[in-house]
Amino acid sequence: LGGGGCGKPRSRHCTPAWGMSETPSQKITNKKIAEDLGLAVTTVSAAKTGKTNGKAALQIKEYLENIIKRNKQIDELAQRLNMKFPSSYVDFLSEIDNGDVFEIKGTGICMYSYADLEERNLTYEVEAFEPNYFMIGQDGDLAYFIRRDNPNDDSIYSNDPVSYTHLRAHE
Q: Which residues make Cβ contacts (< 8 Å) with residue 166, sequence separation at least 6?
């Protein structure tokens, strides 16, 4: 960021990571679930209507239950943090398993799961140094943020969070 990283995070004016995934986050449909599980759409339709008790129906039920559980945990996190995430980001987070990291292929950029967000922001003391921003991922010494105060802003901002530690050491 031109000179050190002590300035405010700046918008990269890039497509949000959740817009860069191979299968863009969107409303979950039976067809998408079937594709994710490698099942035929007709099997999903039967599972939806409850006319089959097969393995496919159980897989779909577990998949949906996991998404619902993750969405609840994301909502609880947002309440604890007293912020609201952009809806497209919530959709993206709901697809990442607890503790996993989503790596954007070929870039080195890693986006955190909901389970890691709070700890990463506490570790880097983001709220103390950048109270309007929330760290969502990293690429080495470059961190990526969303705004805390505008859930309608899908922009991703970047800055060097390591500079916060150096700044504190010099105080």
A: none
pTM: 0.63
Q: Tell how strand 101-103 and strand 110-112 pair up.
A: antiparallel
Q: What is the pLDDT of residues 141-169, one digit of tens each?
A: 889 999 998 999 989 998 887 665 444 44
What is the full DSSP assignment across the chain? --S-S-S--EE-----GGGTSSS------HHHHHHHHT--HHHHHHHHHT---SHHHHHHHHHHHHHHHHHHHHHHHHHHHT----HHHHHHHHTSPTT-EEE-TTT--EEEPHHHHHHHHHHTTHHHH-TTEEEEEEETTEEEEEESS-TT----EEE-THHHHHHHHT-
Question: Phi and psi for 4 in degrees, rounded to 5?
Answer: 145, -35
**Residue 85 near residue 74 (C-beta atoms within 8 A):** yes
- For 29, the token pair is 């449909």
Whether 126 and 142 have beta carbons less than 8 Å apart is answered as: no
